[in-house]
Design brief:
By secondary structure, the protein is of the alpha+beta class. It has eleven helices and 15 strands. The strands form three sheets. It has a six-stranded mixed β-sheet. It has a five-stranded mixed β-sheet with strand order 3-9-8-7-6, sandwiched between helices. Helix 1 packs across helix 2, helix 2 packs parallel to helix 3 and helix 7 crosses helix 9. The longest helix has 21 residues. About 50% of the residues are buried.
Length: about 400
Amino acid sequence: MPVNLQAPSAESLLPVRGVLLGTAEASIKKPNRKDLLLLQLPAQATVAGVFTQNRFCAAPVIVAREHLAAGKGVRALLINTGNANAGTGAAGLAAARASCAEVANLLDCEEQQVLPFSTGVIMEPLPLARILAGLPQCVADLRENNWHAAAHAIMTTDIVAKAVSRQITVAGKTITVTGIAKGSGMIHPNMATMLGYIATDAAVAQPLLQQMVSQASDASFNCITVDGDTSTNDALMLIATGMSDAPAITDEHSTGYAQLQAAVTEVATLLAQAIVRDGEGASKFITVKVEGGNSVAECKQIAYAVARSPLVKTAFFASDPNLGRILAAIGYAGVQDLDVQQIRLYLDDVLVAEHGGRAASYREEDGQRVMQQSDIAIRIELQRGAADATVWTCDFSYDYVKINASYRS
């Protein structure tokens, strides 16, 4: 079960003025489940996004990038689960474009104003006929207060839907930020299989919106790892409808810019952490913080070495304080001039190692106490600079193997 993660209630998810959402049961992989989502946006909306860095990226990623680059504005987003449309060659690209064309026909916009997204099994043909047949149901279901259904419609191996809302006040006017995400396995930075959609009714210039989503991604979805696998389909999209009465945000000095950036980053971070808490088979949520580094890059390098180590992750699943595995991961992280004599390792409040070995004050029963918790923090002090970085991960359990061994069945 997910680690200290509750499903969002429909009442907690605030509508974003101008964003209409509609779902359908298209039987893309399995019958009787929501697996198709359509978002319709107003003409003045601005949209920005970041995508997977996997060179074998999926057809919808290629098409979405092309359509964003065309600069015609975005009027709709189409998301299907059950099939990734990745590793499908020219036929996959044609299917992604055909789905955009049909959405454009139904919503009276241009094909290049539609962005497609897919998630599911790789290297299987997209069941285009089922998607096209489900689109009228999506259109009929379009409404602003449909975020709860939308969060469920994009799930794959997720156990719990992931959705968050926040509101801020700028110049006496309310701005809403609501986001949904899916992801549970195949999670690793650049990006981390996840899809995320965050919308606000603020008015934000497109170049600034791109900067905003990049910063939010770097602080959230690019700081999580479940299994070290970077998906072919990852995308995080940020939408600004411009329908709030708050002043428009045109540059970093605009009133409300810092508040909105903080709110978007908070929503992205909560969604990213929810993905880790719902990691396939996860029983522990682990925060890895590296402090006192020469640079953020080297801090992240060490944090990821620890966070993605199968031996570290299985030790946490077993609640076994075999903490020398963490030292080993720090050592092979690739920071060549690291002075291990300066490193201090903490497990929550327990000092585990210093001066190159076990701390004199460390007791096995103290490590065992912390390892029994469902939320655990690893803190690594390098004592060589002022930089720090935090990464979130989970343990490896028997269920992770079972889930992924039977993923296509």
